[in-house]
What we know:
There is one protein chain. The protein is an alpha/beta fold. It folds into 3 domains: 164 residues, GAF domain (Beta-Lactamase); 153 residues, 2-Layer Sandwich (Alpha-Beta Plaits); 252 residues, TIM Barrel. The chain is 49% helix and 21% strand. It contains 21 helices and 22 strands. The strands form 4 sheets. The chain has an 8-stranded mixed barrel with strand order 14-15-17-18-19-20-21-22. Strands 3-2-1-6-5-4 form a 6-stranded antiparallel sheet. It has a 5-stranded mixed sheet with strand order 8-9-7-12-13, sandwiched between helices. β18, α16 and β19 form a beta-alpha-beta unit. The chain is elongated and about 150 Å long. This is Putative signaling protein. Keywords: Membrane, Transmembrane, Transmembrane helix. It comes from Jeotgalibaca dankookensis.
Amino acid sequence: xxxxxxxxxxxxxxxxxxxxxxxxxxxxxxxxxxxxxxxxxxxxxxxxxxxxxxxxxxxxxxxxxxxxxxxxxxxxxxxxxxxxxxxxxxxxxxxxxxxxxxxxxxxxxxxxxxxxxxxxxxxxxxxxxxxxxxxxxxxxxxxxxxxxxxxxxxxxxxxxxxxxxxxxxxxxxxxxxxxxxxxxxxxxxxxxxxxxxxxxxxxxxxxxxxxxxxxxxxxxxxxxxxxxxxxxxxxxxxxxxxxxxxxxxxxxxxxxxxxxxxxxxxxxxxxxxxxxxxxxxxxxxxxxxxxxxxxxxxxxxxxxxxxxxxxxxxxxxxxxxxxxxxxxxxxxxxxxxxxxxxxxxxxxxxxxxxxxxxxxxxxxxxxxxxxxxxxxxxxxxxxxxxxxxxxxxxxxxxxxxxxxxxxxxxxxxxxxxxxxxxxxxxxxxxxxxxxxxxxxxxxxxxxxxxxxxxxxxxxxxxxxxxxxxxxxxxxxxxxxxxxxxxxxxxxxxxxxxxxxxxxxxxxxxxxxxxxxxxxxxxxxxxxxxxxxxxxxxxxxxxxxxxxxxxxxxxxxxxxxxxxxxxxxxxxxxxxxxxxxxxxxxxxxxxxxxxxxxxxxxxxxxxxxxxxxxxxxxxxxxxxxxxxxxxxxxxxxxxxxx
Length: 641
């Protein structure tokens, strides 16, 4: 019994000792695991902190830092990152860290088709993990992957995907070269955390890349924008090598872009801009830059040329890309461009001045009819300065009472009777004398000063007509020109009505002349405006008839009482049989349509006789009267009476 008791005692003591050993081992393992987790958490914080400042310049360094930290932490021989291109279905071995004594494998694996390693990609997609404990024990379907891993000297590895919005954009791998490596579920989850940090870094990089792109590129065409152009030109200027390799700038503007936008819509306008951008890129060399400034304006920055003729040759090439029609709504549309050329430092010593002077040259090309190029010159620059000065003066001309009206009589060519007058705007600028209407009217239209000026002309002319009526002059009509900007103004009808009410002039004594160009893109709104004006008793006439590209269908739709045959045809009488034929056709057409017609710019008796034979008896021109101020006209009327 004593022996049995001793045996039982030994068993109990042994069991208690085992329990104590197990308790201490478990506690030690927990402490080790806790230390492992704490060390990992510390590493995560440090890596996450590093990735907070990731950008395009330091991205490679940040990724390599992550690979080094996790490789060292898990005691691996090699860690790597493969970048995946989902669009092109390829992958590239882009980043790597190797422990001491381990040979690097980065370099040869670039743009590898994903289809070469189907088992690997399938494991990442389905299991969110590739785990190979022993390369020699891989399944048969992984023979391609097994062969590649053996070539790289890998013995055991694990890889986790990096996903952005559910799509695999990369994967991180950890490799053991000399021995098998077992991975617990906890460690796999730790690796997933690293993948999430990498994914967040990629998201931030992508976001920054988009922000940078938007800051330096045109969103519609993808071309560099004004900011990018400015930086590139400034870098070239600051390098101070422009003497050896001078730089030039071509400012390119589509001649008919507004018309395409108006007729086909903005979507087709955008489509045209994309096509133009694509064609311009075929002209630029690798060193050059094609930019879109906005609207239909592009710049080709030529980063170095031998002689100035080279810039002209490039401009010719640009014009040639517009020779082929552009396809819009499945139809061919011919499009041309105007180009201005500036050179550094001849035409400017900074980017903005170069652009400004190239734009001036472009405007000159447009003035000359478009579809051509012009070079910046001293004359153009002086003209631009004069235009700026003239614009500033024009803004104050009304307030300073520098504007006045002259009046040119309209005459019955058979009897010599004055039928009416046309009010013609004049600008008597102090120190300069009378400024030509050809110089300041287009400027007023461009700056929209034509709206207040046009209203002043209308009111002044109507008031003068009423004053003459009260002095006992015959009941003559007063003709006033309305610009296209006035006729399109939403309040034009109310403005005319208010002028008639304020001056007391009856509508039947007012004739409004609109240019033929205002009828080219006529719409229902303009048709309604003309009908409302006619309802007041006002006569509506088309000025410069035959000069623009109007159509008879539009003419039929509009409420027109009279047309004025453009002086360019009248002055061809006796000289150009084509001008005479056009006048004959217009006279016959207007007679059949029962529309009055008047010839303007009549200067010779030959012209008068020719027009009278065609049934045209209303004339306006120097043969009868020049435009004259109020007092002179009153003297003429008094003498006739």
